[in-house]
Structure formats: structure tokens, C-alpha cells
Fold:
Amino acid sequence: MQVSVSEMLKKLCFIISPEPYTGWNTFSKADADIKKSQTGVQYKNDKIIPFININTLIKENFKSKPDFISIDVEGLDFDILKSLDFENYAPSVFCIETMEFNNMKLGKKNTEIISFLENKGYVVYADTYINSIFVKKELLNI
Structure:
């Protein structure tokens, strides 16, 4: 998988929520708009942040693929996961935020992420309600 220079130098808008809602900060305008419409909480401001592709990050900072990757990137988790070069950088374990936002605290799981990783040979090994821990099925002897 080849990464273009434009991907490496991409900048994204980080939408910042006011206190005590800073846990709602996000790169996803769609997610921010959902939160705003469901709660009435207005964004505090936003900030442009340089963004680097996950494959470039691994290539430039690891001698080999990492054993563990945690993804919690406020609205871009699935996009980042889909862009990972699984042939070269698939870890043994992922921790990924899989809970979708719901102001009633009755969020539902992002089944797209779960299905995607199951198709890549991972199983949900544990769940913290907000995050799911995925392990390569071949390592579990199941």
C-alpha cells in the first residue's frame, strides 16, 4: 500500500466542545452535529491539526509491526482502521472505541468495526462497554 505525500501532510479540523463535554471533541463534523442536535451543546471552537497516515506512522517509528494498536480518534476510528495496511502492519491485539454516541447513555456498538475486524481474522476478546479488545483468532486456538 503506497501512501501519497498529500495523505501524509493532510490537515483536519478538530472540533472542541466546552467543559464539561471535552470528551465529545471530535474530528467528525457529522458526529459533532449529532451531539449538538441531541443535546443543544454548542461547539466551543475548532483547531486545524496536521494528520499523518497510520501506515506512515508505523513505518517511521517501529522496526517491525506493533503487537498492540489502540485507536480512539474521536470520530475517525473506522476510517483509520480501514486505511491500515493489514498485510504489513496487522498487530496481534487492537483496542478500539466501538461505542457510538447517544446522549441517553444507551449507546450502541459500531457493528461496522466489529464486522470489519472479524473479516480480518480477529475476535472480540473483551469489552469495556466503550472499547472493544480484538485479538487475532489464530492466537487463541479457537
Observations:
- The mean pLDDT is 83.
- Strands lie at 11-16, 45-50, 68-71, 93-97, 122-127, 131-136.
- The first strand starts at residue 11 and ends at 16.
